[in-house]
Amino acid sequence: MEVDPALWFLMSRRRRVPRFEADLPVTDTVGHLIRTLGIPPTEVGRLTLDGRAVGLAARPTGRDGGEGEPVLTVASRERPQPTRRRPPRFLLDVHLGSLARRLRILGIDTAYETGAEDAHLVERAIREERVLLTKDRGLLHRTALPEGALVRGDTVDEQLNDVLDRFAPPLAPSTLCPLCGAALAPVSTQDIAGELPGHTRAHVVDFSRCTGCGHVYWRGAHFRRLDAVIAAALRQVGTGIISGADRSPKEP
Ligand SMILES: [Zn+2]
Fold first, then answer.
1. Cα-flanking dihedrals φ and ψ of residue 137, to 5°?
2. What is the Å distance from ligand 1's center to 207 Cα?
3. Which of 55, 137, 220, 249 has the largest count of CB atoms under 10 Å?
4. What's the CA-to-centroid distance between 184 and ligand 1, angstroms?
């Protein structure tokens, strides 16, 4: 077997070499071989057997009249990765709450649930055509899951960088609620006067309210940090911006 070095971190150390013997039963499918190595099928791109493109269901039987085992090559998933829906929508598992807020701040449709069972996450990802993002390899081994990704990185900055690089989603900063992911709509100062502290009412003119949870946002003390996050994401994704809203939500 020859596995793309970009996937070596998922495999045992002795297999982190350019070519190795898989020594696995030829009755197994390619998909099973790959899972046995520790690689979730969602992380795999082009597969070939002796140079011929194959799918996960192929079986690497012996060569016709040839010697030795056929050579299976495993490429990492291409970047940017195409998705069924464009722009892509995401569903994040319970451990990625900080990443969920960042993606929403950038205007990327992001669902996030705490306390959801694995089976529920997979079912929702299928029903809503969302890409399931997780740090849990076991979740991605579920065969029913059509689209998922193992998020690389331990910090939220690294994780955001990985998702933007992998899916290149179009950005629409400051259009979604970081708390619940619903759309933000502008509101006038009069409409929300009773909900604001006095100093905010006097100094801020630019307000929006979440159409989902009702939370009110304005340019608060965090906006410089959020602006830096948004600017870095725009540089990374390039011209994929949908709308140039100039408000930054106050991060919860
Ligand atoms: Zn909300």
1. -60, -35
2. 14
3. 249
4. 8
Q: How far apart are CA 152 and CA 123, in angstroms?
A: 23
Predicted confidence at residue 153, as pLDDT, reads: 96
Cα distance between residue 90 and residue 42, in whole Å: 14
Residue 48: CB atoms within 10 A of its CB come to 17
Q: Which of 115, 82, 240, 75 is nearest to 171 (CA)?
A: 240
Cα of 64 vs centre of ligand 1, distance in Å, is: 61
Cα of 176 from ligand 1 centre, angstroms: 8
pLDDT in tens, 43-92: 999 999 999 999 999 987 765 555 677 889 999 999 999 999 999 999 99
CA 78, CA 73: separation in Å to the nearest integer? 15
Look at residues 238, 222, 239 and name the one whose alpha carbon lies nearest to residue 105.
Answer: 222
CA of 234 to the centre of ligand 1 (A): 23
Q: Contact 47/55 with Cβ under 8 angstroms?
A: yes
Cα Rg of the chain (Å, integer)? 22
- As a whole number, mean pLDDT of residues 105-109 equals 96
pTM above 0.85, yes or no: yes
Per the listing, tokens 């016709």 go with 64
When the pLDDT of each residue in the chain is averaged and rounded to a whole number, the result is 87
Strand partners, 199: none
CB 209 within 8 A of CB 137: no
**Tens digit of pLDDT for each residue in 124-172?**
999 999 999 999 999 998 878 999 999 999 999 999 999 999 999 999 9
Q: Sketch the domain layout of the chain as residue ranges.
A: 2-76, 90-237
Check if the beta carbon of residue 216 is closer than 8 Å to that of residue 187.
yes
